[in-house]
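Let's sit down with a protein and look at its sequence and fold side by side. Once you have written the record down, we can walk along the chain together.
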Amino acid sequence: MKVLACVLSLLSTFSVYAFTIGAYNIRNFDYDERARIKTDKPTLANILASLKFDVLSVEEINNTKEFENFLAATFPFLGVELSRCGGAHGQQLGFIYNKNTVELLAFQEDMRVTRPGTQGSCDGSSRPLAIGLFRIRATGQKFHGMTAHLKAGSTPDAINTRNKQYAVLRNIILELRTKTGVPDAFLAGDLNTTEFLSRGSDFRILTDLVKSVGMVNLTQNATCSAYWWGGSNDGIESPSLLDHVIVTPGLVRTRVTGQVHGHCQRVNCKPATPAQLGISYQGVSDHCPVTMTIQ
């Protein structure tokens, strides 16, 4: 089992209470037109059931109505809120959450991150930022959740676009604190940090963002969250770290236990064949769920 654990000595008024936040890019639910693969829903249901999350950021939900129906039929205790806009490829994003432990108080989508420097477009360029205001039922603590799916690719232009998107995210995070008076928040999702593991530009840019807003990247030391073809047709898929969970210190008291799931856990984030990665890779997503239990 791949377990990522760290102990954070952070001062907080948050009471000792286990709370799990995660991120999962569910590849073009419920049909990936590029690969011509329909989402394996029984496998997806098993994956979601194993996560035991309170709030999960989700991305690439192309068929939002079918996703809502799937959750209602399989997990009636889960709530779902998805964006109306999905960028150039109709990839909506948002949250699913345990209604028994969390209440969603408000939801909005911010278009500024789609095309930095412009008014943004609902169906053009990148996806919007999904923002939810949540309340933990057991403690009454409020916090903002933000789901992001940034520009994909490892080209200089893609990295430059993500750099601009980080600047927008910084402004949004600071605005939320100032305008709402709610100091705590998390940012999670597919940040497409293609150079994170190699400690390249994505690593430096994201690290600078996290530091500038006084947050903590709980996935800093994760070893992977997705697989790709690796740039060569050798039949071996390569691990990558694209998905992150970033929180304010006020959401953490003493400890964080993190875990990657699915095929990332199965092969211990090592290079592997599609057959070794299995059905979660072939039938659900190239990404793996990442969860962080904070106390």
Remarks:
- Helices lie at 41-51, 64-74, 156-180, 201-212, 262-266, 274-277, 279-284.
- Residues 1-15 have pLDDT under 50 and may be disordered.
